[in-house]
Amino acid sequence: MTAITSINAQQNDLPKLTGPYLGQKPPGESPEVFAPLILVSKNAIHGNIAFFPDGSEIYWIFHPPDYSQNPPVIHFVKQVDGIWTKPGTLEFSRKYGAGTLSISPNGIKLFFNSKRPWPDSWGKQPSGNQLEAMKMWYVERIGDGWGKPKLLEKRINQNIMGVSSTFDDTLYTHGIKRIRLNKGQYSDWEQLPPPLDVGRILGGNPYVSPDESYVLFNKKWPGKFGYGICISYRTRDDHWTESINLLERLNTTRGGSQPVMSPDGRYLFYYAGGKFYWVDAKIIEELKPKASK
Questions:
Q1: What are the structural domain ranges in the chain?
Q2: What is the enclosing helix (H) or strand (E) of 240?
């Protein structure tokens, strides 16, 4: 078992933090930087963020300052006896890195994208930084830690830029594509129709709500730095509403990427300019069309 150990503190003088979300003051209707003294490191680049379902553990992708020489890894903090630990690193991510990250709503699986060596039966693994060299892996929860990395099955594990899962283990991935789980086996990709056919890059790392009622994704935002973070709601007949740029509705001047919701559904988190931001998510319910409620 790969336990959640190896606490490598980056901030040695942090006070003891208690309470939900690292004890940070909750944001209002304008996005605010989330835990800048804990999750943000000088000269480093960060990726997406993920939460354990009960909120007691927070994970994020960390690109070290010398990321051209060392791969990005998965950092984390967790509550122990009500107190948040200093940042540590998941050991299985050290050698081969991790490019994306998500946790299933039930906390059973942690998905990550990596260039870990794949089995010989999969053929020769490309060298370099090609997307084709990266596959989707996952680890399963064992006690208070994670098991050994396993590959998502080969038939669907091609050019995937992150996944997000629902309560019934349906996966949403780049494109935006949907992959149903049926009797323990994943179906073939299903390309979702407009407005969700946004392409591999903009549709990378989509976030689907656990009940599959909406999906969040990146979309071009003309005249702005960064992407718009858009939402589309799923109707009762499995159609999707026209997308709405949440950042524009929140009167935010800068774009972001890689959206994710907090486990309690109260906050929207996203990445922008080397930092993680969070904002009150009540706008998601306010914008929800009546036909979807």
A1: 21-208
A2: none
Looking at 1.10.3470, 1.25.40, 2.30.30, 2.40.128, the CATH number of the domain 21-208 comes to 2.40.128
Pairing of the two strands 73-80 and 57-63? antiparallel
**CA–CA separation, 60 vs 256, rounded Å?**
16
pTM for this entry:
0.91
Q: pLDDT tens digits, residue range 238-273? A: 999 999 999 999 999 899 999 999 999 999 999 998
Residue 215, CA distances (Å) to 178, 239, 263, 266 in order = 11, 12, 15, 16
Cα–Cα distance, 124 to 262 (Å, whole number) = 39
Residue from 272, 229, 224 nearest 249 by CA: 229
Instruction: Label residues 103-130 b or e (16+ Cβ within 10 Å = b).
Output: bbbeeebbbbbbbbebeeeeeebeeeee
- Condensed to tens digits (0 to 9), the pLDDT of residues 187-221 reads 999 999 999 988 766 777 899 999 999 999 998 89
